[in-house]
Predict the structure.
Amino acid sequence: MYRILVIDDDRELCALISRTVLQEEIEADCCYSGQAGLEKLKENEYQLVILDVMMPGFGGFETLEQIRKESSIPVLMFTAKNDSTSKVRGLREGADDYLTKPFVMEELLARIISLIRRYTRFNQNGNDANTLTYDGLMIDLDDRSVTTEKGVFELPPKEFDVLLYCAKNQGRILTKQQIYEEVWGEPYVYDDSNIMAVISRLRKKLEADPGNPKYIQTVKGIGYRFNKGV
């Protein structure tokens, strides 16, 4: 059975989420502050964290920052209606997805299942190579990690999936729509903030000079291309 952690000071919402996910055989632990959530993460193994942006004291962004120092676990953030600043900030700081309050539980459940599926999915095809190697970059499909001159580190699910999709299509121009529908698994809605935030984080981690990327290059007005020369 999968297990998720909900960090939100709204106790009624936490209880509702717990009941809802249990229908899909997913257990949920609830914490009502960022600090309590961080302690809980040290005690148990989870496949997903749901994190509210607006919490008293140690807030959602501070909690996300601490999570990303230790873990690549997928994080779904709750943001307030029309709060585009929080959405962009969360994505740039390492969140994998966001959902605006209020929301319907069916949509939340779909996003939870999608994130867990991507996080727990490994390369199952024994005929495929377990690693992809490029100039100065190695992608390990088994443990979903990358190796660069900066060292070896795991990537959060969306970052890894975007990198892997681009790398497997090396030299091919991919539109933002193609990337979004492949990685997010849902229809493209002309909101490029998700993709741009993930690409930005990838460049900061992979590139010696993020402003002049060697691997994932921008094709102006179209999308991105993984450099065919590496």
Q: What stands out?
A: The longest strand covers residues 2-7.
